[in-house]
Amino acid sequence: MHKQLSSDVNVVCIQTYSAVFDASIETVPQNQPKGRSLTFELLGEGNLPHIVIARPTLRNKRGQPVLVFRRCIIGRTQTLPVVIANDGTLTCKVCC
């Protein structure tokens, strides 16, 4: 006989969480001590979304992204792309 267990944790801050799960079976006859209880530790960590700037690839000495605009005539516009990627495990939204 197999049983399955799942658990959910509501993380409130970035830290390591742990708990001990302890279950005992009451329907097993007393003369069968083997397999009457189950104990194990649950571990988990809180995470934050992780965003990276994929473009521009050019960086200054401090590692900050740099956009290089050409000279532009007054009244004209110029556009350069900025690509932001989520390389973390959590979904997130970037607002500008």
Outline the fold blueprint.
Elements lengths: L15 E9 L12 E9 L5 E5 L27 E4 L10
Antiparallel strand pairs: 1-2, 3-4
Kindly estimate the percentage of residues that lie in beta strands according to DSSP: 25-35%
Structural class based on helices, strands and sheet pairing: mainly beta
Q: Looking at the structure, what is the overall shape? A: rod-shaped
- Would you count the extended β strands for me? 4
Distance between the termini: 54 Å
State the helical fraction: under 10%
Number of helices: 0
Poorly predicted ranges:
none
The biggest beta sheet is recorded as: 2 strands, antiparallel
What does this structure look like?
- With 96 residues, this protein is mostly beta strands.
- Helices cover 0% and strands 28% of the residues.
- It contains no helices and four strands.
- It has strands at 16-24, 37-45, 51-55, 83-86.
- The protein is rod-shaped.
- The mean pLDDT is 83.
Give keywords.
single chain; 96 residues; two-stranded antiparallel ribbon
Structure in a nutshell:
With 96 residues, the chain is mainly beta. The protein has strands spanning 16-24, 37-45, 51-55, 83-86.
